C-alpha cells in the first residue's frame, strides 16, 4: 500500500484545512516550537544551505499544482529574486524567532487566496493539506540533504530526529497534518513517490533556464568580458547545482547529466565535508544566515561545537 494512497483524492479536494491551537489531554494549549537543542536549529540556517537553493525551489514546483500556483499568483517571471527575498525570511523566522507561531501563521496566511485550476481542469488550493505539506517537505529534505551532502554525514538516528522535529515545525503553520508521514521511513517512501509525480511545468522550466542557457549578462558588463567571467560560474552551476537535483527533476527540466559530472559532483561534496572542521571555525555571522545568527546570539549559545561528530 502506497504511503501516498490518499494523495490524489486529498489534493483534488482543493479545500483549505486550517487548524489553530491544539489542547493536550489536560486541556492545556500546546505551544510547539523548536530550540537550540534541535538539529533543525543547528543545520537549517547554515549558510551552506545556499548550495541547495535550486533543489528546494525546484522540487517544490515540479508538482503541477504548485507550479501552477506560482504561475497564477506570483511575480516569479518579473521579480524572481524579490519573490525569494519575501518568501525566505518568514519561513526562517518560523524556526528561529521568539514568535514561531506568529511567523508560521504569517506564512500560512500568505496562501489563503492561492487557488485555481491545473491542466486537467481540476482545482487546487495552496492550503489543502496534501499540497501544503509537500511544500514543507521540500524544506525538510533541504535540511537532510544539504547537511548529509555538504556538511557532514548524518546517522540514521539523526535523520529520524530531524524528521520528528519537522513535525513540530509543521505544526507552527496551523494547517492540517493529514498528509504528513508519521515516521522517517514513511517520509522517505513519500519523497520517492512524489519524485515520480514530477512534470515539466512552465514555472520550473523557466526557473531553470539559466542553467541551460547560461547566466544572463549584467547590463554593465561588456559581452566579451562576461563570456570569460561566466564560463567558470556556468560550469559550477551545471555540475554542483544540477548535482543536487533528483534525477526526476533533471529529466523534466531537460538538464544534462552524465557519469563524469556525477563523479565531479561527488568529489566536490566530499571536499566540502572534509573542510567542515575548518568552516566551523568561521565567525558565527558568516556561518549562519542572519535570522539564525540572531537567534543563536539571543539564546547565548555558540552552535559551532554542537553536533559536530560525524556519523559512524
Describe what this molecule looks like in 3D.
The structure is a single chain. By secondary structure, the chain is mainly alpha-helical. The protein has a domain at 7-18 and 35-203. Helix content is 59%, strand content 3%. It has 17 helices and 4 strands. It has a two-stranded antiparallel ribbon. A two-stranded antiparallel ribbon has the order 3-4. Helix 7 (129-151) packs antiparallel against helix 8.
State the gist of this model.
With 312 residues, the chain is mainly α.
Topology:
Layout (H helix, E strand, L loop, with lengths): L6 H7 L8 E2 L5 E2 L8 H6 L8 H9 L2 H10 L6 H17 L3 H11 L4 E3 L5 E3 L3 H23 L4 H16 L12 H12 L6 H6 L1 H5 L9 H21 L3 H6 L6 H16 L1 H4 L4 H4 L2 H10 L13
Antiparallel strand pairs: 1-2, 3-4
InterPro entries: MPAB/Lcp_cat_dom
Protein name: ER-bound oxygenase mpaB/mpaB'/Rubber oxygenase catalytic domain-containing protein
GO molecular function, one term: oxidoreductase activity
| pLDDT averaged over residues | 91
Global structural class: mainly alpha
The strand order across the widest sheet is 1-2
Give the end-to-end Cα distance, rounded to a whole number of Å.
Answer: 33 Å
Helix content: 55-70%
Rg is 20 Å
The gross shape turns out to be globular
Report the sheet-strand fraction. under 5%
Low-confidence stretches: none
- The overall strand count is 4
Largest sheet: 2 strands, antiparallel
Order of helices and strands: HEEHHHHHEEHHHHHHHHHHH
Q: What's the total helix number?
A: 17
Amino acid at each position: 500500500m502506497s504511503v501516498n494512497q490518499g494523495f490524489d483524492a486529498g489534493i483534488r479536494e482543493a479545500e483549505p484545512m486550517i487548524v489553530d491551537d491544539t489542547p493536550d489531554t489536560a486541556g492545556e494549549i500546546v505551544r510547539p516550537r523548536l530550540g537550540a537543542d534541535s538539529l533543525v536549529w543547528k543545520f537549517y540556517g547554515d549558510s551552506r544551505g545556499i548550495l541547495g537553493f535550486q533543489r528546494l525551489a525546484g522540487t517544490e514546483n515540479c508538482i503541477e499544482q504548485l507550479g501552477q500556483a506560482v504561475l497564477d499568483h506570483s511575480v516569479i517571471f518579473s521579480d524572481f529574486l524579490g519573490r525569494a527575498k519575501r518568501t525566505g525570511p518568514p519561513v526562517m523566522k518560523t524556526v528561529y524567532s521568539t514568535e514561531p507561531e506568529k511567523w508560521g501563521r504569517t506564512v500560512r496566511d500568505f496562501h489563503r487566496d492561492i487557488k485555481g485550476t491545473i491542466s486537467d481542469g481540476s482545482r487546487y488550493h495552496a492550503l489543502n493539506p496534501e499540497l501544503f505539506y509537500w511544500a514543507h517537505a521540500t524544506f525538510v529534505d533541504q535540511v537532510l540533504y544539504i547537511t548529509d551532502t555538504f556538511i557532514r554525514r548524518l546517522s540514521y538516528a539523526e535523520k529520524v530526529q530531524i524528521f520528528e522535529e519537522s513535525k513540530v515545525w509543521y505544526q507552527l503553520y496551523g494547517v492540517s497534518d493529514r498528509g504528513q508521514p508519521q515516521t522517517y521511513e514513511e517520509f522517505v517512501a513519500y519523497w520517492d513517490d512524489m519524485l515520480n509525480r514530477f512534470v515539466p511545468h512552465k514555472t520550473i522550466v523557466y526557473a531553470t533556464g539559466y542553467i541551460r542557457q547560461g547566466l544572463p549578462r549584467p547590463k554593465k558588463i561588456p559581452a566579451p568580458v562576461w563570456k570569460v567571467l561566466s564560463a567558470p560560474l556556468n560550469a559550477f552551476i551545471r555540475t554542483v547545482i544540477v548535482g543536487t537535483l533528483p534525477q526526476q527533476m533533471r529529466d523534466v527540466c531537460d538538464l544534462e547529466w552524465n557519469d563524469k559530472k556525477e563523479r565531479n559532483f561527488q568529489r566536490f561534496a566530499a571536499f566540502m565535508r572534509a573542510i567542515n572542521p575548518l568552516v566551523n571555525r568561521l565567525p558565527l555571522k558568516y556561518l549562519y544566515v542572519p535570522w539564525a545568527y540572531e537567534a543563536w546570539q539571543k539564546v547565548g549559545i555558540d552552535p559551532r561545537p554542537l553536533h559536530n561528530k560525524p556519523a559512524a
